From TrEMBL:
Pfam families from the UniProt entry: DNA_alkylation
UniProt feature coiled coil, ranges: none
Record protein name field: DNA alkylation repair protein
Length: 241
């Protein structure tokens, strides 16, 4: 069982009709945020099924890093899902492996040019980046959030999902404040999503304090995502500001 076998299995599941749908959904058309990518038509649910026998195969990281440079979106998605699973296992007490977690994080950090759509970011950033940084300085998040690249800024935000799960929300709020004037809707969505998660899973009072300070400056999409779990009266009040 090899990385080449995994790629071959993904290719065997390709469906041109599905590829057309996915190409529209992920905006691969000229001018779209995914322009230049290639879809062969394999849904995420199918990819996860294909991955099952590979999850414990310990495929060599250099092979996975090379596969992550593939021009095919689904190849990269499969590799990132696999890396996220291995990072998650490295974080668990029974299977803790700090050396592997570091190696995966470093591989990921070298490869952000290929992590270039929201599904690729969202399936991997929490476990790989957030998980690695859970007990370390958060400077890499602030380097990413100030990047000119949309997807690196989204990586910074979505990575905090893992931190939120551990009760750590400070970076979520600091990063959200950094992107109040960001031009990209996909950054607004990620920021609002993480704010909502911080309020739901850790402290609604903290979320309200952030909203009280910044609601009038927040892009509408970010605000709507952030307040989604609040009561109807509060949502109406924040939207009216």
């Amino acid at each position: 069982m090899s990385t080449q076998d995994l790629i071959a299995d993904i290719d065997a599941a390709a469906d041109p009709a599905v590829a057309e749908v996915l190409a529209r959904y992920f905006q691969l058309q000229p001018g779209g945020y995914g322009h230049g990518d290639q879809m062969i038509g394999v849904k995420l649910s199918t990819i996860r099924g294909i991955l099952k026998p590979y999850l414990r195969a310990d495929l060599p990281l250099p092979e996975l890093e090379q596969a992550l440079t593939s021009p095919v979106h689904e190849h990269r998605l499969a590799i990132l899902c696999l890396l996220a699973d291995r990072a998650s296992r490295s974080l668990k007490p029974r299977t803790a492996n700090p050396h592997e977690l570091t190696a995966i994080y470093e591989l990921y950090s070298r490869s952000t040019a290929y992590i270039n759509n929201w599904d690729l970011v969202d399936c991997s950033a929490p476990q790989v980046v957030g998980g690695y940084l859970i007990d370390k300085p958060r400077d890499p998040l602030y380097t990413l959030i100030r990047s000119k690249e949309l997807w690196e800024r989204r990586i910074a935000l979505v990575a905090t999902q893992y931190l939120i799960g551990q009760g750590q929300t400070a970076d979520t709020y600091k990063l959200a404040a950094e992107v109040l004037d960001d031009p990209e809707d996909l950054v607004h969505k990620a920021s609002g999503w993480m704010l909502r998660e911080a309020g739901k899973r850790v402290s609604e009072d903290e979320l309200r304090a952030f909203l009280d300070r910044y609601a009038t400056r927040m892009p509408r999409t970010m605000l709507r995502y952030a307040i989604e779990r609040l009561d109807p009266v509060s949502r109406k009040q924040y939207l009216a500001r």
